[in-house]
Amino acid sequence: MEDVDVIIIGGGAAGLMCAAGAVKRGRRVLVLERNAQVAQKVRISGGGRANFTNLHASPANFLSD
Q1: Is the CB of residue 10 less than 8 Å from the CB of residue 32?
Q2: What's the burial of 19, exposed, middle or buried (CB within 10 Å: 0-12/13-18/19+)?
Q3: Model's pTM, two decimal places?
Q4: Among candidates 36, 6, 2, which has minimal Cα distance to 18?
């Protein structure tokens, strides 16, 4: 196993955002998730509208002035 700087327990929305922020700052990150895939609850939240894996979603759907 490689050395990591940060270990995040939980691959939900908060865990993935934390991991993305740490990686952006140059940290080596390990995300531990008990389910077979990360973000399982995120994919079904909001009837799919909050699904960040949705192919038709763009930044315009989430950003405002």
Answers
A1: yes
A2: buried
A3: 0.64
A4: 6
Residues in the chain: 65
Torsion of CA 10, 18, 64, 51, to 10 degrees: -30
Output the six-digit token pair for 22: 């740490």
Tens of pLDDT, residue by residue over 7-42, are 999 998 889 999 999 999 999 999 999 988 888 777
How does DSSP assign 23-50, residue by residue? HHTT--EEEE-SSSSTTHHHHHGGGGTT
Residue 40: CB atoms within 10 A of its CB come to: 12
The DSSP bridge partners found for residue 29 are: 6
